[in-house]
Write a structure and sequence with these properties.
Length: about 375
């Protein structure tokens, strides 16, 4: 606990003010953090032995202030945010008797900084199935503490929940999924107030994060493995139905069933069989047009002109949803990042894990809620 030396400025004038000056000269004000290796991750608390605190300012070396409040009895001021690691702070306090004091301290540097990747990006427009997604560079052991500092605001009070999952690459990830698909036009904002939070194991966050997006057209892509068609619906009405050929049933070449979400529109890319574990007679190496990623494990919707004889009659691909170049180009232009692809019918290999793309839509609402660290 650091005791602050007070600096007093008193007005001169008639009468005897020595008593008031004496009372204001040395107010006993102290701060719970001090020195050059102060413990991070704690609120800053300024205390006054006698009298009342009038105003307290705690700011870092960039001028960013920690918000806080004076207690009802005026004896303490406590910051609402925690002190971040590796940060210098300056404290200024004044009392109701005219006394003032200043102090400074620096928190210890973090052993390791934990950073995040946010999706979707700022000011984006996405489809009705796009979740808020945060992937962490390092493991998060204090999941409940981290989740407490993630605030989602929606323009229509959408019901949703955070859920902790493993990303396909093994990293910790937390997504905020609505109970049902978003309503078109909903505006969504994430305020991740993580600066000063220990994610566990001395992995610290040293900044806040934010993103926002708007939900675009209400459309769903329906992939029917039985009829071998891909149908785009908008506002519940069919826009166009396209013949297609999906994955060959009965093995690893089968398509994923259930609901996946359009993650990215990647255009023309090189697809190689070894990246998805197919070798020998199943191997391929192709440049593929109008590629739309549905899972991290390699399921796409794309143009597949080499499979033209199977469109509309046989599922005969290596797991992807293939269409003619013209049809794939049309869907590529119409589809939005975040649109759900609902795969129904026989012959799939089950549903993707929640972290394999955005597979959380394959969980019931209660099962998804159970993945929150606060439930």
């Amino acid at each position: 606990m650091a005791v602050l030396a007070a600096a007093l400025t008193a007005c001169s004038g008639g009468g005897d003010s020595s008593g008031a000056a004496e009372a204001a000269e040395k107010p006993k004000i102290s701060v719970n953090l001090s020195g050059q290796q102060a413990e991070a991750g704690k609120p800053v608390q300024v205390s006054l032995a006698d009298g009342r605190l009038k105003q307290v300012t705690v700011a870092d070396d960039k001028g960013t202030k920690l918000p806080g409040k004076v207690s009802a009895n005026g004896s303490t001021w406590t910051s609402e945010r925690k002190a971040a690691p590796g940060t210098a702070y300056r404290v200024e306090a004044s009392t109701d008797k005219g006394g003032s004091a200043k102090a400074s301290f620096r928190t210890a540097a973090p052993e390791q900084v934990n950073k995040v990747t946010l999706a979707p990006g700022k000011n984006s427009t996405v489809g009705i199935a796009q979740p808020l997604s945060i992937t962490f560079d390092h493991p998060v052991r204090n999941k409940a503490e981290v989740e407490k500092h993630l605030k989602v605001t929606t323009s229509d009070n959408t019901t949703g929940s955070w859920g902790w999952i493993k990303n396909h690459d093994g990293k910790d990830r937390v997504d905020w999924r609505p109970k049902e698909y978003w309503k078109s036009g909903t505006k969504v904002k994430l305020d991740a107030r993580l600066n000063g939070i220990d994610s566990g194991g001395d992995d610290w966050f040293v900044r806040d994060y934010a993103t926002n997006f708007t939900v675009g057209r209400s459309q769903v892509v329906k992939v029917n493995l039985d009829s071998k068609t891909t149908t785009l619906t908008r506002d519940g009405k069919t826009v166009r139905s396209l013949p297609m050929s999906a994955g060959t049933p009965g093995g690893e070449k089968a398509s994923w069933g259930g609901t996946s979400v359009l993650m990215s529109k990647e255009g023309t890319i090189n697809m190689r069989s070894e990246t998805v574990g197919l070798t020998g007679s199943n191997s391929y190496d192709k440049m593929v047009d109008y590629s739309m990623r549905l899972t991290w494990s390699g399921m796409y919707a794309h143009a597949a002109p080499w499979n033209a004889s199977y469109f509309g009659n046989t599922n005969h691909s290596s797991g992807c949803v293939g269409m003619s170049t013209g049809d794939a180009g049309w869907l590529y232009r119409e589809a939005q990042i975040g649109d759900p692809f609902e795969v129904t019918g026989s012959g799939s290999k089950g549903v993707p894990e929640p972290g394999n793309g955005y597979g959380e839509w394959n969980l019931s609402w209660s099962d998804w809620q159970a993945k929150s660290a606060l439930n």
